[in-house]
Amino acid sequence: MRFQHKNILVIGGSSGIGLDLIKLLTSEGATIYAASRSRSEEWPATLNYQEMDVMQGVELLASFVPDELHGLVYCVGNINLKPFNRISERDLVDDFRLNVVGAALSIQQALKSLKNVPSASIVLLSSVAAKTGMGFHSSIAASKAAVEGLALSLAAELSSSQIRVNVVSPSLTNTPLAAKLLNTPEKMEASAKRHPIGKFGEPKDISAAIAFLLSEDSSWITGQIIPVDGGISNLKTNF
């Protein structure tokens, strides 16, 4: 099993991609430390839990994480889509705090434990909207682009400590956060057609990519932004 005797911290793992990731990592032997606002009834009984709201601070992580931490995944996110003229200063600040500041501060709290193992991995989540212009995505696109910049800088800085930092950049994925975008057959069909491969994403598509980046199978991969998006960011199939 790829994650036998590995400690993995998942921040924001009570639903969607994070929940699917926890199930996958546990099935492959990982010991999971999960920090989120609420528990999930689908979590394995062996999971270690810390109640935490990223928007209120992440200081609790310092005493929660084990001395040796092999991986950290920041799965916290939101989908705040509005016309640009309706985006408030609070929207912009909250999106940046949730996606960028929360990730940065969480990594700071866990960094000592990450440095205590020979080769640790950090995986952050971005969005296809960070690099592909999409209407109504101004706030989330700006904050996710900042996540990518943060990750690249950290990958360079932490490489001397043998800590890898990568980003998975999904397109629309069938999670509770995206429920309003996929709540009718018509919306589901339209969303599927927008992707060259003919379907929208499922949590397992994203969690599989994250697990690969956490594993030793990707030991020579760092500083990469990896789209997992059905081809929407790079392919044009409708002429």
Automatic annotation (TrEMBL):
The keyword Transmembrane does not apply. GO terms for molecular function: oxidoreductase activity. InterPro entries: NAD(P)-bd_dom_sf (IPR036291), SDR_DHRS6-like (IPR051122), SDR_fam (IPR002347). Signal peptide: none annotated. Keywords: Oxidoreductase. It comes from the Bacteria. Belongs to the short-chain dehydrogenases/reductases (SDR) family. This is NAD(P)-dependent dehydrogenase (Short-subunit alcohol dehydrogenase family). It comes from Pedobacter psychrotolerans.
